[in-house]
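User: Continuing from earlier, I have the next pair ready.

Assistant: Great, send them over.

User: Here they are, in order.

Assistant: Folding the first of the pair now:
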Amino acid sequence: MKEKLQKARDALSSIEDDFRDFPNPSECVRDLMQLRNGKALTIIDSILSELDSSWQPIEIAPKNGTEILGYMKPKKVELIWFFAASSATQNWLDTNGKIVNPTHWMPLPEQP
């Protein structure tokens, strides 16, 4: 993931270089900002789509009751969600209400 973020930083830096290359920036600011925003959004969308389709550390998973796919060692994938009745009672649960200990997660795919 660090490589993807560095790639995004490099791309955004090149956008700033594009701005400096304009001979008369005051005449092109609006067009450049549209170009810059378009490129940035494309880069961000690409990164987000890759992140959405890859396993991520469980520490950054949503803890608001959202159902997600959880990966538990060894080689077990289940539908899970985070349950927090109180600060003392917080656990990842499977669909049967059993406590599980996932190491990674990913969002559910879109329904067919």
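And the other member of the pair:
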Amino acid sequence: MASYDDASTSHQSLVPGLLYVIGNNLHYQILRYLTPTSFKVLEQVKIIITAGFMRLLLGTRLRARQWVAAGGSLRTGTRTTLNPLLMLCACV
């Protein structure tokens, strides 16, 4: 088992860590120009875009239930969480 002092482990986590820091800083910059609701909608669109790229680039075929569940993530309003029933359908 490798320890955290291992140089290769440190290097492997460096890039994802830096991307995470950059992403968080961009979130704060974007929130300066958008309302929180608009930001949340744009953030949820990532799920649809990821599903589309999986289909186009990787050739992954998603079932209809998975598309419905991904589309359910765009529901906004006072609740910005995913509908639990749609999430359950995606897992089946």
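Worth noting for the second one:
The chain is about 70% helix and 0% strand. The CA atoms of residues 14 and 83 lie 34 Å apart.
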